[in-house]
Design goal:
Structural class: alpha+beta
Strand order of the largest sheet: 2-1-3
Number of helices: 3
Strand content: 5-15%
Order of helices and strands: EEHEHH
Number of domains: 1
Radius of gyration: 13 Å
Helix content: 10-25%
């Protein structure tokens, strides 16, 4: 089950459950769409994978399966996967 992390790992922008600008990788690294597009270039700095929009958990499901409360913050100063992966489609990496 998704953790529904509350913030962008890079810029710390609040990304609540109902946000339409949340992007996650296969390991659920969580970033805002602006960081994914402008800084990360659709390359996860932690695994090298691509990003997809995070689904929104229905409000009634948040009661029994709440979103994660604590933040994950690891600002990206260097993306070791960027140069080798930025021109390769995520499904071909």
């Amino acid at each position: 089950m998704l953790e529904i992390r509350p913030n962008c790992e890079n810029c710390d922008k609040a990304l609540p459950n109902d946000s339409l600008e949340v992007m996650i990788c296969t390991y659920e690294c969580t970033f805002c769409a602006e960081c994914v597009e402008n800084i990360l270039q659709n390359v996860c700095p932690n695994c090298g994978g691509g990003f997809e929009k995070r689904p929104i958990r229905p409000k009634n499901e948040l009661i029994k399966n709440p979103a994660r409360k604590d933040k994950v913050l690891k600002p990206v100063s260097f993306n070791k996967f960027l140069e080798t992966n930025k021109n390769i489609e995520p499904n071909k990496r």
